[in-house]
Amino acid sequence: MSALLTVSDLSMRFGGLVAVDQVALSLQERQIVSIIGPNGAGKTTIFNCLSGFYRPSNGQVQFKGHAIAGMPGFKIARLGMVRTFQHVRLFKEMTVLENLLVAQHHHLNTGFLAGLFKTPNFRRSEREGLALAHYWLEKVRLTEFANRTADNLSYGQQRRLEIVRCMAARPQLLMLDEPAAGLNPNETHELNGLIRDLRDNEGVSILLIEHDMKLVMGISDYIYVVNQGRPLAEGTPEQVRNNTEVIKAYLGES
Ligand SMILES: Nc1ncnc2c1ncn2[C@@H]1O[C@H](COP(=O)(O)OP(=O)(O)OP(=O)(O)O)[C@@H](O)[C@H]1O
Fold it and tell me: Which residue of 41, 83, 133, 243 pairs with 37 in a disulfide if CB–CB is 3.0 to 4.6 A?
C-alpha cells in the first residue's frame, strides 16, 4: 500500500528557535495517525507546515504524489487535505447551513454567469450542495440548527460543525488540531465515534493532534511523539504507552 502522506526531514525555524527539527512521518489511506507531545513540542507548527500556513524551512512533504511543501493552503485544500484549528474558526455570522455551502464552492458549478442564467448545471449543483450539507448536519445532530448563525451554537456544536464543514470540502485527509479540547466526556465520546465513522464509512484518513490520551490511545493506528521539536518515538499505541523516553518526557513536564 502506498502512503497518502509522506513527510521527511521537516524543519521550521523562527529566528533562532527551531520549533520543528527533522520530523518524519507517513500516513496510509484510511489510517488514523496521531502526533502527540508535551506543550510547545511543535505539533501545531507541523500542522501549519503541512497545510500551507507556513513555508517550512526545510523538508519534503508528499501528498498523493504531489510535492506540497511551500504550496499555498488553498491549493493543498483543493488537493484534498483540509484541517481544523486549535481554536474553532467558523464563519460566525453565517448560518450553520451557509457554513457548509461555502465549504463546497470549489465543487459546485455556481459561477456568476451560471447563477445569473440559472443553468441546469447550476440548479443541479445547488441541489447536490444542499443535499450534502444536510447529510453532514444530520450526521452530527445539527439539522435543527441549520438556520441559526454559527455563533449561536454551543461550543461542542461549533466543534462538530467545524469538522463537518471540512468534510463538505470532500477531503481525503482530515487534519484535526486538538478536537477534544474543551469538550465534556460525553462530547469526547461522541467525537471518538465521529472520527471512527469518518475513517470507516467515509473513507478519509485522519491526522490528529490531541492531548486527551484516552482518546489518542483508543483510536490511533499509529502514533508519532515529538518533544522540543524533535521526533522522540513512534509506534502503535501499545508501543508508545510503554516507551520509557515518552513516559519521561511527559512526567518531566509536570
Ligand atoms: N509563529 C511563531 N513565531 C515564533 N515562534 C513560534 C511560532 N509558532 C510557534 N512558535 C513556537 O514554536 C514552538 C512550538 O509551538 P507549537 O504551537 O507548534 O507547539 P504545540 O506542540 O502545538 O503546543 P501545544 O500542545 O501547547 O499546542 C513553541 O516554542 C512556540 O512558542
Answer: 41
Cα 148 to ligand 1 centre (Å): 34
Q: What is the pLDDT of residues 107-136, one digit of tens each?
A: 666 666 566 667 767 778 778 889 999 999
The protein residue with its alpha carbon nearest to ligand 1, atom 30, reads 40
pLDDT score at 197: 96
Residue 115: φ, ψ to 5°: -70, -40
Cα 4 to Cα 66: distance, rounded to the nearest angstrom: 10
Domain boundaries, given as residue ranges, for the chain: 1-80+171-254, 90-170
Q: Which atom of ligand 1 is nearest to the CA of 86?
A: 27
Ligand 1: residue whose CA is nearest its atom 10: 19
Q: How far apart are alpha carbons 120 and 47 in whole angstroms?
A: 40
- Mention the CATH class of domain 1-80+171-254: alpha beta
Query: Is ipTM over 0.90?
Result: yes
Q: Which amino acid residue places its CA nearest to atom 16 of ligand 1?
A: 42
pLDDT at 111: 65
Report, as ranges of residue numbers, the positions in the chain whose pLDDT lies below 70.
1, 107-117, 120, 252-254
